[in-house]
């Protein structure tokens, strides 16, 4: 085939990839470079792992009952790289300005609309002290936006956040922020991310990287388009009529109203009056509020909601689920508490010499 194409090659001669690809095509095969093949395999593994994660949540639902739901997007990145400002611009709010020291210290859950489609956002802190919150934020999401400031580049928490997103098997979209700054260098960010095997699509990789200037509102639409493109490539589904289930985003005790827990519904529709268990907490939902504090009666898949009625604050990251009634919820909560106590009170197993030597 080479000779027929005018290349007088001998049997031992090396040909370049493009030539080999032409020959293979003529012979009825498709050529893939090793990097392409590795990328495709990694992507296939990611999809498989993510599917396993969702199957736990939809266990018991019939596949014909599963309907598309809006994507849940976690915003991750190094401290001060512009995560909250980005979200403020998307939602037309001013959360960043009101934060103590300009630093995010809890996970916030919000919804925004783009082209008539909802997207749920989880804002996470970038300060190095909040590793666990970033990990939980990534676990609860469908997609991660990795925020990297164009003037600062890849920093330690950028790498940590990338690892959380990879551990959670979620697809990643990169927002290169602060491109309006004098010393901004989006190209350097792309170079640094490529070294971490996150290769931009305009460099033949498969990661969408969108430059934004959040204070000016530039690039925001492109970023949301990119998120929706990735969402369309994945099937995010739930049964809105199934068993209400999801995860705890955060929880605190309100002096006047009792335990206020922010939940993200991932399946079913949670309603006022439902009895739920969340980790070792339980209770009947007395009231529900949306992100603006408005009273609501129910919340479907991908909707974040604050609820009153749990006996004590559950842990962020705990799974919650609706049960038949509060009696059942209390029984399971008591069982879990006992289990926890017995694990905590067990003496640590004595070390044998073998244990010690096995460490070397
Ligand atoms: P943590 O949550 O504490 O990790 O910070 P963050 O990533 O949420 O950063 P935040 O949005 O609070 O922004 C940090 C600082 O960067 C603020 O002073 C913002 O005004 C500024 N900033 C954010 N986005 C931009 C941008 O696009 N351009 C410029 N010039 N400044 C920005
Ligand atoms: Mg923030």
TrEMBL record:
Its main location: cytoplasm. Keywords: Coiled coil, Cytoplasm, GTP-binding, Initiation factor, Nucleotide-binding, Protein biosynthesis. GTP binds at residues 77-84, 123-127, 177-180. Residues 30-57 form a coiled coil. Residues 68-235 form the Tr-type G domain. Residues 71-219 are annotated as: G-domain. It is found in: Cytoplasm. GO terms for cellular component: cytosol. GO terms for molecular function: GTP binding; GTPase activity; translation initiation factor activity. Belongs to the TRAFAC class translation factor GTPase superfamily. Classic translation factor GTPase family. IF-2 subfamily. One of the essential components for the initiation of protein synthesis. Protects formylmethionyl-tRNA from spontaneous hydrolysis and promotes its binding to the 30S ribosomal subunits. Also involved in the hydrolysis of GTP during the formation of the 70S ribosomal complex. This is Translation initiation factor IF-2. It comes from Phototrophicus methaneseepsis.
């Amino acid at each position: 085939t080479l000779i027929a194409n005018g290349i007088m090659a001998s049997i031992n001669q090396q040909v370049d990839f493009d030539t080999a690809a032409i020959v293979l095509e003529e012979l009825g095969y498709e050529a893939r470079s090793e990097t392409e093949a590795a990328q495709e395999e990694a992507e296939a593994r990611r999809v498989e792992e993510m599917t396993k994660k969702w199957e736990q949540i939809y266990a018991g639902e019939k596949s014909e009952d599963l309907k598309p739901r809006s994507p849940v997007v976690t915003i991750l990145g190094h401290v001060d790289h512009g995560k909250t400002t980005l979200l403020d611009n998307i939602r037309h709010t001013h959360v960043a300005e009101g934060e103590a020291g300009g630093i995010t210290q809890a996970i916030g859950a919000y919804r925004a609309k783009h082209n008539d489609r909802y997207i749920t956002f989880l804002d996470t802190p970038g300060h190095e002290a909040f590793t666990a919150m970033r990990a939980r934020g990534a676990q609860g999401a469908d997609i991660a936006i990795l925020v990297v400031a164009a003037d600062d580049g890849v920093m330690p928490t950028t790498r940590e956040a990338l690892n959380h997103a990879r551990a959670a098997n979620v697809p990643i979209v990169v927002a290169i922020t602060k491109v309006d700054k004098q010393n901004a260098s989006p190209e350097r960010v792309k170079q640094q991310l490529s070294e971490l095997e996150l290769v931009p699509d305009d460099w033949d990789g498969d990661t969408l990287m969108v430059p934004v200037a959040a204070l000016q509102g530039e690039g925001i639409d492109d970023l949301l388009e990119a998120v929706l493109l990735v969402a369309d490539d994945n099937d995010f589904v739930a049964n809105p009529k199934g068993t209400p289930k999801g995860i705890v985003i955060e929880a605190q005790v309100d002096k006047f109203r009792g335990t206020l827990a922010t939940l993200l519904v991932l399946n079913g529709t949670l309603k006022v009056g439902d009895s739920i268990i969340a980790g070792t907490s339980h209770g009947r939902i007395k009231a529900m509020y949306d992100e603006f504090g408005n009273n609501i009666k129910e919340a479907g898949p991908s909707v974040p909601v604050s609820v009153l009625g749990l006996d004590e604050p559950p842990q962020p990251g705990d799974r919650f689920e609706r049960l038949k009634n509060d009696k059942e919820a209390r029984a399971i909560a008591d069982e879990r508490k006992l289990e926890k106590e017995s694990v905590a009170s067990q003496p640590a197993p004595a070390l044998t010499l073998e244990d010690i030597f096995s460490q070397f």
